[in-house]
Amino acid sequence: MNQEYLKKTEIVNFEHPTIQSLITERKWHELDDYNKIGTAYQFVKDEILFGYNESDDISASEVLSDGYGQCNTKGNLLMALLRGLRIQCRFHGFTIDQQLQKGAIPTYVFWLAPKYIIHSWVEVYFEGRWINLEGFILDNQYLTSIQQKFNQIKDNFCGYGVATKCFSSPDTDWRGTDTYIQKEGIHDDFGLYNSPDEFYLEKGTNLSGVKRWMYQKVIRHLINFNVTNLRKNKALEVQNA
């Protein structure tokens, strides 16, 4: 067992009381490894809603407090939960093409997005091999809403936070194998890191200066408002069914 893949960091702060309370209250320690991974994964996928936090490098406990996140921030929380359950995991850094975010990020603020956006997934060690976990980014309600919005598309789709070759039925639930939802939008592969802390120290985050300030104070709230409305489309359809 590699202790580097179990260490706490400023971002992967699994000893924080709120994270420990979550693990204890849900009795995740009592599960076998397969279900430890699965329950942590599904929690981050569906109980932490898709949304845009203040920065990619916020701590796992801050993501839990926000109750929402995107690829990088949800990954921070997933890594903390896994390590808190003594499951080895590591960080894989990438960039994705900005077109993947079009629709989730409204057109009137899309100019803010870098051409290639910092992206990541979590790799978890299970039964002697590393498994790629990326399918946790979009909560089920949001993804279902987008699928209903574009129900004529079954295969290749890029936009609204999705980049997949199987839009109608992507592998996003934990079954002991790789999960993906944005993989087809990857541009650069930065490789493996022991923690997100090491990655952001080397590569930085997506925005800096005035753009970062504008994003944190105003623009991300507009984006989150848009994402919430996209998600509500499904809720309205269910009520009217």
UniProtKB/TrEMBL annotation:
<dbReference type="InterPro" id="IPR038765">
    <property type="entry name" value="Papain-like_cys_pep_sf"/>
</dbReference>
<feature type="domain" description="Transglutaminase-like">
    <location>
        <begin position="30"/>
        <end position="134"/>
    </location>
</feature>
<dbReference type="InterPro" id="IPR002931">
    <property type="entry name" value="Transglutaminase-like"/>
</dbReference>
<protein>
    <submittedName>
        <fullName>Transglutaminase family protein</fullName>
    </submittedName>
</protein>
<dbReference type="Pfam" id="PF01841">
    <property type="entry name" value="Transglut_core"/>
</dbReference>
